[in-house]
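Action item from last week, closing it out:
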Amino acid sequence: MGRRSRGRRLQQQQRPEDAEDGAEGGGKRGEAGWEGGYPEIVKENKLFEHYYQELKIVPEGEWGQFMDALREPLPATLRITGYKRYPEELAWHTNLSRKILRKSPQLEKFHQFLVSETESGNISRQEAVSMIPPLLLNVRPHHKILDMCAAPGSKTTQLIEMLHADMNVPFPEGFVIANDVDNKRCYLLVHQAKRLSSPCIMVVNHDASSIPRLQIDVDGRKEILFYDRILCDVPCSGDGTMRKNIDVWKKWTTLNSLQLHGLQLRIATRGAEQLAAGGRMVYSTCSLNPIEDEAVIASLLEKSEGALELADVSDELPGLKWMPGITQWKVMTKDGQWFTDWDTVPHSRHTQIRPTMFPPKDPEKLQAMHLERCLRILPHHQNTGGFFVAVLVKKSSMPWNKRQPKLQGKSAETRESTQLSPAGPAEGKPADPSKLESPSFTGTGDTEIAHAAEDLENNGNKKDGVCGPPPSKKMKLFGFKEDPFVFIPEDDPLFPPIEKFYALAPSFPRMNLLTRTTEGKKRQLYMVSKELRNVLLNNSEKMKVINTGIKVWCRNNSGEEFDCAFRLAQEGIYTLYPFINSRIITVSMEDVKILLTQENPFFRKLSSETYSQAKDLAKGSIVLKYEPDSANPDALQCPIVLCGWRGKASIRTFVPKNERLHYLRMMGLEVLGEKKKEGVILTNESAASTGQPENEVPEGQRAGEPNSPDAEEANSPDVTAGCDPAGVHPPR
């Protein structure tokens, strides 16, 4: 029971720099209103101060400033979704704490704005130091990226943004595989990634210290997938987050670091194994403790025997203040006992303290490691949290991957799969100290693994194009059972009507379409990049995929009545739009305002240009495109693509609420509220008009006849104007 309790405690501390806005402190709510909130926690920990003063991680004369900064609330920071480096006015630092932002009545509208824009994927509320590791990865659109401990996903979204640096390329060559050991946190990760609507992201659920080695098909040959970039943001004790996670003041002890060191080293080792030669891996923690920082890096460098080296990134983030990594440190137990090297540790402590926790004894070897190239960010230097980052470059294969394989009558694939047993510690749980320094490798060459995996696949009964969850005997996994990923076959009769209805370009990658069911009607169609399709088809037996792809089409509830049974989904419209050559209506900015603020505006409410384009179209899904007018600087100067529906006498949009609010804000409209029954959005332009919506008779309907489907939809109390509701019949 004690071990499980420790595991839960440590898991709650995983990467807390990205955690949700939570309560700052415990206890019952006080009488002090929004400013007070919770009883004040005493921000004192004598053991913490003694430990870090002894290690001298803070420059002489700055200790008082360091402690004062730790006792101040962490300022709120946010990042605007963009594809350039930060700052450059895309990351913003406020002088307000998160609690003030949430509770202050004067900031209520600003807070609502932040929540809405975050949901629509236009900003990310992310701690400043948390933005550093993805920037140091130096990602390019063709890179294959692994995020080993990704949840809750703010760094993952940065990586996705970097892949899509060129907005004119809907399918970058690269991709992000985002992993987390916690099944529930994987769904938080999916939610974060979905905001960016990328076909190049896959979320998987594995223990990062034994994440399976994947394979891909290259010109008909099976080859091991090595990643160009790996983000290794490991679970840590989190003492750099004291400014927002105030409980750390009470709970801090060196025991957390001692327990996590082995797990951190195994995760970093596994990452280094899967890194391509010439690739870059960033190791980061939100801990200031050298046991979790320099000790892990030094041990990894030592066991790599020259295959890895620390990169000098001192000039890559100009303006960032940081301290170089330290080369000497000591180990302290939770009761305050110090050890300077492994030889002085009594045998009774060997299960708690391991030799990899100490700096190398050989001065030449220590100097060659260049540990000073590590970056430690201290809170008082730039009013941030505490953080540690090290950038590793791989020069050649890890030494154990160069050795001749020893099969001993057991296939390489089988041996590799045995590592995936949950008996090993998972992220956030105390490590088994007896195994801390053992690397997670099989001693098997890459070629042997590829051949063994290919044989296993050829002998199996896998259906073509079906990527289901792994068999229970192969890998003991916990959490929800996922639906399979089924690629649409070339001869599937489902696709030709879609292709004809939307006049899809011949270059449309139809092979990348998938669904999540093998039986019955296909309700949703998703799309992935061809590189992720390759990964999915060649590794369905190895990995547990939680989610991948973006939704591009949804089946109409009464789709058989129309020429095409599938309508466009707003989530994937920017990916699909370059391939669509039909059913596109160009609209003006005034049209966009009407379409986003009224439930089912009749044709005559729209401009004559829009009506002339819509009147000859058959009923069904349409694309509404706004092109900026450079001659009118007061008009919105960025293009907008919306999914809509051409009904009998009206047009409506299928746009999620927060995305709709985003577009209205961009056009200078402040949303004041909603009249749900009438399907009208009140803005600062429409507030003066308080009359009821007109009871118009649409063309083709005589007085006294039952309402047309358009009118029925417009009067539906369950549909919000402009939203993309699940399960709602589109107007006909």
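Closing note: The mean pLDDT is 77.
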